[in-house]
Write a structure and sequence with these properties.
alpha+beta, about 20% helix, 7-stranded mixed β-sheet, 17 strands
Length: about 550
């Protein structure tokens, strides 16, 4: 924040810190098309891919996300590499190249229409892909644009490639089973053009769509890459039964979208288990389900439904109440360990969890048993695409969580005020900070000074945040703030960070000979850094003889 920012004292009322996101809606294209890849040299065989690779593509390593799709199609001569031995998986595909792929994969399919004499005006008879374009058009995969043009050199958006496959395969939406609401599958469903909604829905329900790296992000208007084209074609051939589906234990399978295919990530496996329904429900309540569907990897000690049922009476119900959400998150994070750790890799001793508190591993090799704290692993090494699950027979409770306290709802006659408690914005804390003066000149708030800060939770929503700014005249800030629920801000490595906004008002007290008082307005955010520390930033405006504004950055120790 630059010190050159100056603020008019007559206009300053409150500075609010926030975050904004710009959503750019791409230009819609009104005809189906998609993908690109070099022209293959033979028709695909309607058989399972050869288990031994015969095509070596130098830039598609064995751990590349689309390797299984690309290698299988290359081995079956549906796609090909370049003369230098590369595949160039991230290179965009043109409409002509996608037509060539369609011809190689589905050239024997019945014609459903006929191209007019002379064909498209921008595809001359001698054009390298003229035959492929005619075939893709007549089999119902691709169409032209108004004015009898095909635009063969135009890069094809992902959504057009998906719709092209749905159209050529004659896919229709299902009214039973898989959801027909695209918002169920994609965070950016609103960006799908109207013409493409039915086609994308049908392709999604048929497991044609493959999204990397985020299965929930379709990116409909982005150019289709050669790797993405290979994945879509593979899934289309698998839909026809001409090729074996990708094995569920391969990492590539976690990027296949579809309502009829059971996912293989940790949350999907838990949801498909009859004994882990309570855990699945609590993960969704706590907002952790989406995190445990990310690549990870994670190790989850998963309490069974019987384990949750064995908790003291009403505990499970209390944990699902909004006021106990933080406790629920702590308990669930205490069951998750970084990395994919199988029972053969366990060693006796402490194992750090995502709650920054360790669990104790006990191993009985003679009886082939593993215990976590006092819980016994009753089903080990359930492999997921993003980690491993170990089912346990007890719920693990972090040492700083008092389960019996959760079972004591506040009485009607006693206000729910508990100084020093956590709020929905996070823990209470005390710490140090630095102040950057932005405007004014009447108090220490308008200069660069050190400060002592604190947050004292009073109720679930309300905190008091006393602070002292040291300067020529010490300034005391005593605001009462409204704390908002945390929002996910992003991830660094394996850690996901949240921000908790707050706004408030109070009094500013300048400790000089006259002891001046003034109105204080504040707004800021807290960023929890694990269970011990909280990073905070706030803008404060004190209305004294002048309007003084300062920016406060600090680090608090949670208590």
């Amino acid at each position: 924040m630059s010190s050159s920012f100056r603020w008019s004292s007559a206009r300053v009322a409150l500075l609010v810190l926030g975050m904004t996101a710009a959503i750019i809606t791409p230009i819609l294209i009104s005809t189906p098309a998609s993908s690109q890849t070099p022209v293959p040299s033979a028709t695909p065989t309607p058989a399972t891919p050869s288990p031994t690779s015969t095509v070596n593509l130098s830039d598609v390593s064995s751990d590349y996300w689309a390797h299984p799709f690309i290698q299988a199609l290359a081995d079956n001569n549906v796609i090909a590499g370049f003369p230098d031995g590369t595949f160039r998986p991230n290179q965009p595909v043109t409409r002509a190249e996608f037509a060539a792929l369609i011809q190689k994969a589905f050239g024997s399919q019945n014609r459903v229409r006929q191209l007019t004499a002379g064909g498209f005006s921008d595809v001359p008879a001698g054009y390298w892909a003229a035959s492929a374009i005619q075939s893709a058009y007549e089999t119902g995969f691709l169409a032209g644009y108004p004015g009898n043009v095909f635009l063969p050199n135009q890069q094809i958006p992902r959504v057009q490639g998906i719709v092209a496959l749905a159209s050529g395969l004659g896919l229709t939406t299902s009214s039973t089973g898989a959801s027909s609401d695209l918002n169920t599958y994609y965070n950016d469903a609103s960006s799908i053009p109207n013409y493409a909604v039915n086609g994308v829905t049908a392709a999604t329900q048929s497991n044609i769509v493959v999204n990397y790296p985020d299965i929930k992000q379709l990116n409909p208007q982005q150019p289709l890459t050669r790797a993405e084209a290979a994945a879509l074609l593979y899934q289309a051939l698998a839909k026809q039964g001409r090729i074996q589906p990708i094995a569920s234990n391969l990492p590539a399978s976690q990027y296949i979208v579809g309502g009829t295919q059971t996912g293989s990530d940790i949350v999907s496996l838990a949801a498909s288990s009859r004994s882990l329904t309570t855990l699945t429900s609590l993960l969704k309540t706590a907002g952790l389900a989406d995190i445990l569907q990310q690549p990870g990897p994670y190790t989850v000690f998963a309490p069974t439904d019987e384990a949750f049922a064995a908790l003291p009476a009403a505990t499970l119900q209390q944990l699902q109440q909004p006021e106990n959400r933080e406790a629920l998150i702590k308990i669930l994070r205490y069951h998750v360990v970084p990395g994919a750790v199988t029972t053969s890799q366990f060693s006796a001793g402490e194992l750090k969890t995502y709650e920054d508190r360790p669990v104790n591993i006990k191993i009985d090799r003679a009886n082939n048993q593993v215990e976590v704290n006092n819980a016994r692993v009753i089903q080990a090494d359930i492999k997921a695409s993003n980690g491993v699950i170990h089912a346990i027979n007890q719920v693990l409770i972090p040492p700083d969580i008092n389960i019996s306290k959760l079972n004591q709802p506040p009485t009607a006659n006693t206000p729910n005020v508990e100084p020093g408690r956590s709020t929905r914005g996070g823990r209470s804390y005390i710490g140090v900070a630095g102040n950057i003066g932005l405007s004014g000149g009447d108090t220490a708030l308008s200069d660069g000074n050190f400060a002592a800060i604190s947050k004292i939770g009073l109720t679930r929503n309300i905190s008091v945040r006393p602070a002292v700014i040291f300067g020529d005249d010490t300034l005391f800030l005593v605001p009462l703030t409204l704390d908002f629920s945390p929002k996910v801000a992003g991830s660094v490595g394996e850690r996901t960070y949240t921000i908790s906004p707050y706004i408030g008002a109070g009094v500013a007290i300048e400790a000089n000979l006259d002891t001046d008082f003034g109105l204080l307005l504040t707004g800021g955010v807290d960023v929890p850094l694990g269970s011990r520390f909280t990073l905070t930033g706030a803008v404060n405006a004190a209305f004294m003889d002048e309007t003084d504004v300062g920016l406060l950055f600090g680090l608090g120790y949670n208590f």
